[in-house]
Amino acid sequence: MAKRKVIKIDAEKCNGCGLCIPNCPEGALQIINGKARLVSDLFCDGLGACIGHCPQGAISIEEREAQGYNEREVMANIVKQGEDVIKAHLRHLQEHNQTELFTQALNYLIEKGIENPLVDNQKESIPTGHGHSLHRSKQGMPASSGCPGTKIMDFRKEKEQVVKNKNLSQTESQLRQWPIQIKLVPPRAPYFTNADLLIAADCVPFSYADFHQDLLQGKILLIGCPKLDDAVSYQEKITQILKDNQIKSITCVHMEVPCCFGLVSIIKSAISASDKNIPFAEVTITLKGEKLK
After folding, report:
1. Please, what's the b/e burial string for 73-98 (b: 16 or more CB within 10 A of its CB; e: otherwise)?
2. What is the pLDDT averaged over residues 8-31?
3. Which residues contact 40 (CB under 8 A, 6 or more apart)?
4. Whole-angstrom Cα distance, residue 224 to residue 180?
5. Chain CA centroid to CA 5, Å
6. What is the CA radius of gyration of the chain?
7. In terms of Cα–Cα distance, which of 180, 200, 229, 272 is closest to 22?
8. Is the dihedral angle over the CA atoms 91, 96, 102, 105 positive or is it negative?
9. pTM, whole model, 2 decimals?
10. Structural domains in the chain?
11. Dihedrals φ, ψ of 233, to 5°?
């Protein structure tokens, strides 16, 4: 059995703030029972991208013996942490379409006489071929309630009905500058002078139909993904923009999924680091493309 690096979380130090969640590209971390948990060794690359974002210093890297991505070895560690962590791990495999590994995990539970925590008085299920079942949602897809950012949802019928009942007209773009990616924009671009900034998670413009008229009008746009990109570089770039320019206000718009809230923390940290008093507003968009009031 070879040794490899994985992260280690000190439960005593962890306060469940969740700042580490957006900075785990593999999605191996979740908040369970108020604590950050490594729900799957399988998706932890051991690079420790989440370490620098833990204000409590609860995350470190340890080198321990572990078979390379062996689901039985992973499950042996998972079951020790209780039902909630088992459930989170199984859902994690579902969300990443790891069908073979999901079946191996179920077989391990069967062998050890442990009930599948996903089976919870639901009527409709599909067999895995080993006497166990996996439930389906109303849309006919495997049910999943892990990270909402990767949960499969189908709104086509609802949207088709809306389109039939509403006359859609072309709207004019309110984009006032280029580039718009946080990673690409120069901190001293002339359009930042006396600007009202709109910093948006990059899923928002695709989800919210009135993005241009309702949110972007009159503002300078920056977009990025707090889950897939480097949060540290985002904070450094935004901090530099705020220090080098007279910014009038900042509006942060993000999706309602937990991983997207990391953008709020990034911006607030940048404002604090800039030593400036800049008005800040937050807007949340639902997965159905509606603005929360």
Report:
1. bbbebbbebeeebbbbbbbbbbbbeb
2. 82
3. 28, 74, 78, 89, 92, 93
4. 9
5. 23
6. 22
7. 229
8. negative
9. 0.51
10. 3-145 (3.30.70.20), 155-293 (3.40.50)
11. -65, -35
What's the Cα-to-Cα distance from 101 to each of 42, 128, 143, 157, rounded to whole Å? 10, 12, 17, 33
Using DSSP's 3-state secondary structure scheme, residue 85 falls into helix
CB atoms within 10 A of CB 38: 22
Q: Quick one: which of 69, 61, 72, 58 has its CA closest to 19? A: 58
Alpha helical stretches, state H, 135-209:
156-164, 204-207
The predicted-structure confidence for 229-242, as pLDDT tens digits, reads as follows 888 889 999 999 99
How far apart are alpha carbons 97 and 142 in whole angstroms? 10
Provide the 3-class DSSP secondary structure of residue 184: coil
* E strand intervals along 131-190: 133-135
Residue 279, classified by CB atoms within 10 Å of its CB into exposed (0-12), middle (13-18) or buried (19+), is exposed
> Band of the pLDDT at 25, cuts 50, 70, 90?
low
Decide if 137 contacts 151 (C-beta within 8 A). Answer: no
The Cα–Cα gap between 34 and 14 comes to 9
CB 266 within 8 A of CB 212: no
Tokens of 293: 């009031």
Does the pLDDT at position 1 exceed 60? no
Note the residue count of the chain. 293
β-strand partners of 252: 199, 282
Give 3-44 as a DSSP string.
EEEEEEE-TTT-----TTGGG-TT--EEEETTEEEE--GGG-
d(CA 72, CA 88): 16
**d(C-alpha 13, C-alpha 176), whole Å:** 45
pLDDT in tens, 241-265: 999 999 999 999 999 987 788 899 8
